[in-house]
Amino acid sequence: MNEKPIVIIQTGHMRTGTTLLVNLLYGFISPEEKIRCLWEISHDILPFHDKCNIYKSHCLNIEGFMQQHQEKYNVFFVCTERDDKKIEEKYKKMSNVLVFDYNEILETEEHFTDQIIENTYNKLREHLPISVSLDKETCKTRIDKMNETYKEIENKDFSHLNEFFQLHGKHRSRDT
Q: Is the separation of the CB atoms in 10 and 55 below 8 Å?
């Protein structure tokens, strides 16, 4: 039997931790791949792996993505929300939608990267098919590299973009 390729669309409102969450996903699944984006529902998905492809988006029309792509792909959504920037309740009830609160992935003095990776791993393992391999070590390495890269560009203008991690200069210090 030939199963449809798996596509994970990571989406959420801007300023809800989407960049960190998409890098966690890539770290677990495709640590050496640059982030690919899917900004519009109508954009074609161009698979870069046979089994699992990950895309970042800020488009919150999950039904639209499903209608556009479910015939060719087994589509999953991994979303973020923060304060009043929420994912619609109807989507949270869908079996192919997983939502993280911003505080679950925010590193603080009491909430370390290893804890974030462990929590994210556990939730993803419950949500995604077992055929999707998740590796905590490659995830940790990617997040460490992402943080190092951010230190190099943090004082650059927001228009500066590191395409591999989808990190902008002053990414973390913008006004919410």
A: yes
- Tell me the CA distances in angstroms from 85 to 11, 58, 149, one per residue in order: 12, 12, 27
Residue 42's alpha-carbon distances to 63, 65, 92, in angstroms, are 12, 8, 22
Task: Name the one residue in this structure whose structure tokens are 């591999």.
Answer: 164
Mean pLDDT value across residues 39-62 = 86
Domain boundaries, the chain: 6-168
Residues 64-113: tens digit of each pLDDT? 999 999 999 999 999 999 999 999 999 999 999 999 999 999 998 889 99
- Supply φ then ψ for residue 149, to 5 degrees: -65, -40
Annotate 1-64 with three-state secondary structure: CCCCCEEEEEEECCCCCHHHHHHHHHHHHCCCCCCEECCCCCCCCCCCCCCEEEEEECCCCHHH
- List of residues 6+ apart from 165 with CB closer than 8 A: 19, 23, 34, 35, 145, 146, 149, 150
| 6-168 CATH fold | Rossmann fold (3.40.50)
